[in-house]
Structures are given as structure tokens and as C-alpha cells.
Amino acid sequence: MQTTPATPDTDLQADNLRRAAIDKSVKGPVLFLFTNGAFWLMLSTVLGVLAAIKLVEPGFLGDCQFISYGRLQPAHINALVYGWGVQAALGIMLWIMARRSGQELKGGKSLLITAGVFWNITVTLGILSILCGKSTSIEWLEMPKFVWPVLLLAFLCYAWPIARMFGRAFRPEGFMVSTWYILGACFWFPWIFVTANVALHCLPNLGAIGAGIDAWYIHAVILLFFVPVGVGAAYYFIPKITGQPIASAQLASAGFWTLAVLGGWTGMQKYMGGPLPAWMTSVGACAGVLLLIPVGLVGLNHHLTTLGKHSAVATSPTLRFIFFGALFYPVSGLILALNSAFWTGASFQFTQSWYSFQVVSLYGFFSMCAFGAIYYIVPRLSGCEWLSVRLIRNHFWFSVYGVGTIVIMSLVAGWQQGNDLNNPEHWDQTFMNHVINSRPYVVSRAVAWALISFSNVMFLLHLLLMVAGLGRRSSAPTLLEHHDDHALPNEAHA
């Protein structure tokens, strides 16, 4: 029996059908996570505006106890981390792993949607509890104790099919950078989440070590969950859009394993000079500085991969967001090193500089990469293209200017606060003087969050139109420069 040899067109058609089947299989859970995450993102940035205003004008909107700074700030961070961050990360992880492994989501879609519903209900109850004064007062874990087991089970419902896809994937090329980062995030987050919650909620009388565990938890979630998802997305989409393979598999492998080894040792340097064993703060400080190594390796690899293709940043929404998100990655590494090193950490300790690190990591790096991924993924799931280039541009520039302003102002404010607190000439002054001196920086933070909130409202409306199938009907992608519509065939057909 004679068979007809496969032609390139036949192979391309078969590949497109396979990708369409994969996209259809994960469409429901991924769009559910993205949509709900966008709602929480908008809410978290609005809460950030209110928290910054209340910090400089406590009488704003009256003396209502539900919107005091002590309640708004943790609600703002928890909504950003658990409402937006984790949901967006899970949606990106599920889609990339399905695409990269070539595996469809065969079953369990209803379970994933149900887990997502429970996640959102639980986070809602947790945020309301914080606003009602039921906070645990443990940073990033302020929601009541009943919350964390539900969140853990919901996360595992998504982690299991992601890990299963990886196990079934055919990997002829060996080390797959993006999938290794995503697989690492799947395993690291439950370990970090369980360890911190069991230690802080179930073990009594921890004393000062409890504060150290909390600081470790914050850094570990950033470095071993949000950073891997952001880097994994960048490693997937940059070669996909530019059409160039990753420059160096050796650099990619070294960056991954260095982050895996060092990422879980940071955090306790926040309490250098405090009532913790000196070796704990020393190890955290050393790891915080050494993390510049994986940051540099990833940055160098991304630069080498995009050589000769930087013009695509002007046309592709995905590449523009991920490119600037990748630029914020070394910035976050430098801020972490400044906060960790003994010769500078004493000045930044207990100041707004730590807020700068959290914002640049969560919003400057991870969220920008997540936006880029969403602008690429959603059209392939909804079957239509983004409606407005102007909305995408506004979302990008408001986000860049806003997060840049918050990071710079918080870092400068932290440096000034640290110098004032450590200056013997100021020791006889009341702490209120330091609060007054930081007022201009907090006002700029409020303005920046307001700009970001406006852009996120537009992003949410744009996303809802796409999910409803009301986007632009076209086979060509929505590009930022119309005269280069045919310059990115990979983005149009991948």
C-alpha cells in the first residue's frame, strides 16, 4: 500500500489543528482565572490608592474603621497576591504547559472551575474579614486561619493536571526552560504555603522566630512562585514571537538551578541586628546578594535571544509587556540586594524600601509578564482579536509610569527614612516627623496607583469583551503599529 508523503502545508495544518484542540480543552479554566484575576487586580489597585491617601490624610472619607490604613493596606496586598497574582499565574501555567507538552486537558474541567470558584469565595471572605478587623496581623497571611486549607486544596487541583501534562510530554530537545520553571512553581508554592501556615498558625509561642518565618514566606513566594512563572512566560513567548531559539540552554539551566538553590534562603535578613540567631540573618543576606547571579544569567540570555529583533517590541503587545517586565527583573534583584547587604540593609530596614521590592516584583516584573501572556493567550481561546490598540497602549504606559513611580519614590523614601532613623541628631525627635517627611513620596504613590487603577479598569473591560466573544473578527493579530502588520507571522499563526 502506497502512502502519500507529508507536505509542509499538511504538517502545518495538522499542527494548527493540534494547537486548536489544546486551546479548546483549557479555554474554560484559563479564561475563568484571567477574568476573575482582572477583577481582583482592579480592586487591589483601588485599595492601594485609598491606603496611600489614608497614610497621609487619615481623616479622608471620615473616621470609618473599615477603611483605616491598617486595614486597607493588608487588604490591598492580599487582593494583589491571592486575588490577581496566583490566579493569573495558574492560568498562564496551565496554558503554557498544555501547549509546551502537546497535551490536551482530557478531564476535570468542572473540578478546575469549582476550585476556582472556591478560591474566589475564600479570598473574598478573607479580604472582608481583614476590612472588618479580623486580621491575623501576619504580613501576607492576614486572612483568617480557615482560609489557607481551602486555598491549598484549590491550588492543588490546578497543580496536579499541570504536573501530569509535564510527565506525559514528549521532550526530544531535552531541557525545556519554560516548563521547568512552571513545574518548579507548582511544587514550590504548596511547600512554602503549608510550611508558613502550619508554623505560624499551628505552632504556639514562636516569639521572634515567627516574624522571621513570615519574612521568609514573603520572599519565598516572590522568588519561588511569581518569579518562576514570569521567567517561564518570558522564555516561552520571546522565542515564539521573535522566531529565534533561546540563545543558550546552558545559561537557561544555570539560571533555573541557581534560583532553585538560593530562592528559599532569603527573608530573615529583614531582621538583621534583631532577636534572631545571627546565622539566619547572615544566610538571608548572603542569598539575597547572590541572587544577582540568576538575575544576570536570565537577563543576558533574554538579551542574546532578542538580538536583531528589538524592533518587534514596537509592534507586538505581548513582546512589549514582557520586554519591559523582564527589565524590571534585574531592578527587583538590585533592590533585594540593597535591602539584604549589611552595609545598606541597615538604612533600608523597616522602611518603604521593602514595599518597593514587593511592588517591583509583583507588579513591575510578574504582572507585566502576565499582561503580555494574556494579550497573547486570550485571542487564541476566544476566537477573536483585541478591539483597541489605544487601550493596549494606554494600559502599557500607565502601568510602566505608575509602577516606576511607586518603586522609585518608595526606594528614595526608604533611604531618607533609614538615614533619619539612624542619625543620632534625630533621636530626640518624635516619629511623626519622619512620617511628615515621607508625605510627598506617599502622595506620589497614591497618584501612581490611581493611574494604574484607571488602566486596569480599561484592561478589565477590554478583557470582558474578548471573553464574551465581542472582539475584532480578523485572522491578523492586533499589533501596535499597523504598517508592520505582516512583520510577526509567529504571533499570527502560533
UniProtKB/TrEMBL annotation:
What are the recorded Gene Ontology BP terms? aerobic respiration
Spans through the membrane: 30-53, 79-98, 110-131, 146-163, 175-196, 216-238, 245-266, 278-300, 321-343, 355-376, 396-415, 446-470
The domain of life for this entry's organism is Bacteria
Tell me which GO cellular component terms the UniProt record holds: membrane
User: What Pfam families does this protein's entry cite?
Assistant: COX1 (PF00115)
> Keywords in UniProt for this one?
Membrane, Transmembrane, Transmembrane helix
Top-down, what is the taxonomic lineage of the species of origin? Bacteria, Pseudomonadati, Verrucomicrobiota, Verrucomicrobiia, Verrucomicrobiales
Q: Matching InterPro entries, A to Z?
A: Cyt_c_oxase-like_su1_sf (IPR036927), Cyt_C_Oxase_1 (IPR000883)
Any one GO molecular-function label of the UniProt entry: cytochrome-c oxidase activity
Q: Spell out the protein name for this chain.
A: Cytochrome c oxidase cbb3-type subunit 1
